[in-house]
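Q: Structure for this?
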Amino acid sequence: MLPNLKNSLFALFLAFGAAGSAMADSLEVLVDAGWARASIGTSRPAAAYITFRNTGGKAVTLTGLTTAVAKRAEVHLTQTDDAGVSTMSPAGDIALPPGEDVTFQPGGLHIMLMGLNAPLKEGERFELTLEYDDGGSKTVEVNVLGVAARGPEN
Amino acid sequence: MKLTAFQKVLWALAAIATLAFAGVKFIEMRTTQNADLQDPAFRASFELTDHMGMVRTENDFKDKWMLVFFGFTNCPDVCPTTLSEVAVVMDGLGRKAARVQPIFITIDPERDTPAKLAEFVPLFDAGIIGLTGTPGQIEKTSKTFPIFYERIEDAAAPGGYTMGHTSHLFLFDPNGGFADSWPYGTRAEEILADLKERL
């Protein structure tokens, strides 16, 4: 993606998401288009991926996630050790250092969506609300891609 | 009966010779076993039930290369990622794809029945066969490969647990011998290039 296009996308999400938040620090956190794979029914957890860019001068922490599509949404981290064993565990609050990108991607940080209220269907979108430690929050849209999607571009 | 000193020495020598012979035989046996294991490192060996309910062993896939991955269907991150890479590999093989059988073996037999696997593997549209079995069969399979898996209690997960597991993708030759493996995160393009060289 061209840098200009990417920046304007960030700006777009900022414009959509900032309404309703009076908090300054988390306003500086831009969020890139999120994506998730289509789910298999509702009984299994789904994963969503997103990229944060803290353009401000202060550290901001992501403290919570809510969405209408799942009863519970939390950040999990997949780790693979030297022996090639992968495990997944809740990652707790996520620090977003000033001037840095924090990328959620397969095999690393991801948003676990547990207790789906409806299946995530390819081509649909859902809203995800991000809550920050300064009391600010932002609602972003997540695109549902195919079950075999490898990244946001397909 | 009283043995002369000479007879005692003879008996002692006979005993030593017997022990030595047994020792040599034992070492020979072990070496043969080791040789079998080393060339190749190991062979695929399993007897499991596929997602259509049929019993399958490694012999069903003779004359095909096998791409084997372990996981579980409640896994939202690593497993679909690897299976989607496998789907890209299969697409990239074109006509040669007929010579490769991708296989997904669950390490969560309690939740992953054949019916659950049938909801999962066909979605990747890559001819993947899903295999499950009793907990005992899966444990046995994990030892022959060898892979590691463990149950991790997680109150928030469906059923109250999640699984940790070896996330390598294994390749076996048409004789069932281990040929190669790729760590989790290897791009499909790289796997495809390796595979094309071998086919």
